[in-house]
């Protein structure tokens, strides 16, 4: 398994000054992290096109516990679309998401609409680098880890970074929005 690492340290050989799409994995998510000079590692893996549970597929391929890999889900709340980032080990608690955003209810958004608004395809939606900045809630369990994994913006590529990087760059709030499956 090959990995590419970038760090915020200047002069570090693993952190080239060039933040081009080619050197950072080629997605808006990696460009956003590189532009913020945030430390991250890319983890590519062979995506199985017949896989239906993309997060679990990534966890299994990379040998990472399900609790450390987070999936990006998009829901409709009264004010519009919102992003939920929850561990693949569980499910999104829509009532908790709505409460975290000050809404009365939330429902999963239509996949075609999500792809159009985020610029990513289902199974490769990253919370970073979306076409339109959406209100974001990251499950508070992310703070239990030094680093977490989430989609880099395409199937077969995960980002590993500190949860604070994700929270800062998405302007997210944290709340307990995941529930066990």
What does this entry look like structurally?
The protein is an alpha/beta fold and 181 residues long. The chain has one domain (4-180): YbaK protein (Alpha-Beta Complex). 22% of the residues lie in helices and 29% in strands. It has helices at residues 28-35, 54-62, 94-100, 111-118, 163-170, and strands spanning 4-6, 40-44, 69-77, 80-87, 90-92, 106-108, 136-139, 148-154, 157-161, 173-175, 178-180.
Topology:
Layout: E1 4-6, H1 28-35, E2 40-44, H2 54-62, E3 69-77, E4 80-87, E5 90-92, H3 94-100, E6 106-108, H4 111-118, E7 136-139, E8 148-154, E9 157-161, H5 163-170, E10 173-175, E11 178-180
Parallel strand pairs: 3-8, 4-7, 7-10
Antiparallel strand pairs: 1-2, 2-9, 3-4, 3-6, 5-11, 8-9
Pfam families: tRNA_edit
InterPro entries: Prolyl-tRNA_editing_YbaK/EbsC, YbaK/aa-tRNA-synt-asso_dom_sf, YbaK/aa-tRNA-synth-assoc-dom
Domain YbaK/aminoacyl-tRNA synthetase-associated: 56-168
């Amino acid at each position: 398994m090959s990995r590419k690492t970038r760090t915020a340290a200047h002069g570090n050989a693993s952190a080239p000054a060039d933040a081009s799409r080619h050197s950072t994995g080629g997605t808006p998510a990696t460009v956003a992290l590189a532009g913020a000079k945030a430390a991250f590692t890319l983890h590519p893996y062979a995506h199985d096109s017949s896989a239906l549970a993309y997060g679990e597929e990534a966890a299994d391929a990379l040998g990472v516990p399900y609790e450390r890999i987070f999936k990006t889900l998009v829901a409709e709340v009264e004010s519009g679309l919102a992003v939920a980032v929850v561990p693949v080990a569980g499910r999104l608690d829509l009532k908790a998401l709505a409460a975290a955003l000050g809404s009365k209810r939330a429902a999963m958004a239509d996949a075609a609409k999500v792809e159009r608004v985020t610029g990513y395809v289902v199974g490769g939606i990253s919370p970073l680098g979306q076409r339109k900045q959406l209100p974001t809630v990251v499950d508070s369990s992310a703070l239990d880890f030094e680093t977490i994994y989430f989609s880099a913006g395409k199937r077969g590529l995960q980002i590993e970074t500190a949860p604070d990087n994700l929270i800062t760059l998405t302007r997210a709030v944290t709340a307990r929005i995941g529930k066990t499956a």
